[in-house]
């Protein structure tokens, strides 16, 4: 049984679109979220901790909205920015910065030069206690944060427990809020003419960053 570590039942339902219903279940476990400017170490650290807690295969995700005009902010801090600033303010910051970056001397294509462009990124981290064969998808083999906190008896496990990583990315742009569906930043993220909040759940899942990561993971997991 694969345990998807999340408090969001919707993520588990989305995972079941890519995996057989009986192969994945939800695990509500409050793992430590380390501070990092990148998603990968956050997800990998969480997967190691969740695996040690559950003692069975686990899947942890970390995701964020990366806005080009804000140098990738809020990125891994997306949840905190949503709670403290709100999505409307984050959108305003992006659009205000974008307007300040607009220049009539640009020679790039309109899409490439669009200063409101952004991306949703998701990293899935899988751990089952066993090593992995080499493949195009990265393997995180080190966990310095865990090693620093480990005792002498379990230090080797803390530094060598491997985690397989799968990334999904969807490009779009920041717009005024539109739509009543979805959650989080969905109303201000437009992809191919629609915000995520204007899409049905099925439409969003078909193009979402998490769906793309799950697609990669499910192909690999079928051979595990």
From TrEMBL:
One function term, GO molecular function aspect: nucleoside triphosphate diphosphatase activity
Q: Name one GO cellular component term.
A: cytoplasm
Q: Which is a GO BP term held by this UniProt record? A: nucleoside triphosphate catabolic process
Keywords in alphabetical order = Hydrolase
**InterPro entries in the record:** ITPase-like_fam, RdgB/HAM1
Reading the lineage from the top rank, the first entry is Archaea
* Family listed: Belongs to the HAM1 NTPase family.
Please state what the protein is called: Non-canonical purine NTP pyrophosphatase
């Amino acid at each position: 049984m694969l345990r998807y570590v999340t408090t969001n039942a919707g993520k588990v339902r989305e995972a079941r679109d890519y995996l057989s219903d009986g192969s994945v279940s939800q695990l509500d476990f409050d793992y430590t979220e380390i501070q990092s400017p990148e998603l990968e170490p956050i997800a990998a650290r969480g997967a190691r901790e969740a695996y040690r807690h559950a003692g069975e295969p686990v899947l942890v995700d970390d995701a964020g909205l990366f806005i080009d005009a804000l140098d990738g902010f809020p990125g891994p801090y997306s949840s905190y920015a949503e709670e403290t600033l709100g999505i409307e303010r984050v959108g305003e910051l992006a659009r205000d910065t974008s307007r300040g970056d607009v220049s009539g001397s640009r020679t790039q294509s309109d899409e490439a030069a669009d200063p409101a462009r952004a991306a949703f990124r998701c990293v899935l981290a899988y751990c089952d206690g066993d090593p992995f064969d080499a493949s195009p998808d990265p393997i995180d083999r080190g966990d310095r944060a865990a090693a620093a906190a480990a005792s002498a008896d379990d230090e080797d496990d803390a530094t060598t427990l491997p985690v397989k990583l799968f990334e999904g990315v969807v490009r779009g742009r920041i717009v005024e809020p539109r739509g009543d569906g979805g959650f989080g930043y969905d109303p201000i993220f437009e992809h191919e003419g629609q915000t995520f909040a204007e899409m049905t759940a099925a439409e969003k899942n078909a193009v979402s960053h998490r769906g793309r990561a799950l697609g990669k993971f499910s192909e690999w997991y079928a051979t595990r």
